[in-house]
UniProtKB/TrEMBL annotation:
Residues annotated as binding Mg(2+): 14, 108
Record-annotated active site: 109
Catalytic activity: DNA(n) + a 2'-deoxyribonucleoside 5'-triphosphate = DNA(n+1) + diphosphate
Subcellular location: Cytoplasm
The name this protein goes by in its record: DNA polymerase IV
NCBIfam families in the cross-refs: PRK02406.1, PRK14133.1
Enzyme class: transferase
Binding partners and assembly: Monomer.
Cofactor dependency: Mg(2+)
UniProt record similarity statement: Belongs to the DNA polymerase type-Y family.
Domain UmuC: 10-190
One Gene Ontology term from the biological process aspect of the record: DNA repair
Amino acid sequence: MKLDFPQRKIIHVDMDAFYASVEQMDNPALKGKPLAVGGAEKRGVVSAASYEARKFGVRSAMSGYLAKRNCPGLIFVPPRFERYKEISLKIRNIFFDYTDLVEPLSLDEAYLDVTTNKKGNPSASLIAEEIRQRIFNEVGLTASAGISINKFLAKVASDYNKPNGQKTVNPEEVISFLEDLEIRKFYGVGKVTADKMYHLGIFTGKDLKQKSVEFLREHFGKSGDYYYHVVRGIHNSEVKPNRIPKSVGAERTFNENLSSEIFMLQRLENIAAELEKRLKKSKISGKTVTLKIKYSDFSLQTRSKTLPYYIADKSLILDTTKALLYQEKLENSVRLLGISLSNLNTEKNEPLEQKVLTVQLKFDL
């Protein structure tokens, strides 16, 4: 079937179990063993799991306690984010040998637009193969890739032949590929949305395609338009080389639940200091401070305040956060606090002195 909308050559590169793979590369004694990057203590959280650990059901965002229960032989190592950033930069420099249109999504994945590329290679699939081989030869890690006509399809395809594989969805294959695709594999459809779609009789892309845009809007709000278009292979978002963050935050999960605001303020001061450090490093400030609180029963609450001026200073962030904390009585004891700053100066390119920071208090599982 011929598609009558603009088509690009997009590659989505996704590193395989990145944090865990870096740890196994740096310490050969860990190779081939079930490994989790994160905390093993009662409130610890798994940041990443090796494929050996995933066979036991260990996943990122899982509690360290549950991960250890699923895999008694699991080895925990603390995260080393500076090392991951160092490796990520080497990988990104490989990308730039092929195109300047590189949009990082995180340390371990990125979109590349190779419609016009520095190598003059008309085959995006061959470029992806070459990039993956270079990552392995020059860095020592494996990567997977998805190749197609837009970012949505490339993202979905990169997960198709993981680990250390790639999948190309050619223009003439787009519609059949999407119709056969399980709805839970659509990028942007999480577990809650997938369950809702199941109840509506939507199990595959073909089922989704049979629903009208009005039906999808009624049940999924603004996301209805997104689902209506992507299932038809339409996703016009361009690869943006300089993605501007919409918020900057920091958070902490506590080994013991906190029930006293005094103890919480002590923790918030440390979180605010970390947030200030991140803001100044990126030369960012913001106006909206958000406090995110996760209670011991895992319920979540956020409280926000927008200031008339930009802030990035620890003391100003903390003052605003204190006001949010005392804004209303806490519902329960607290297991996680986080502060984030949004409504950033980067959105309007204001000078550094006028930047606004949004603080968010978060709880982690």
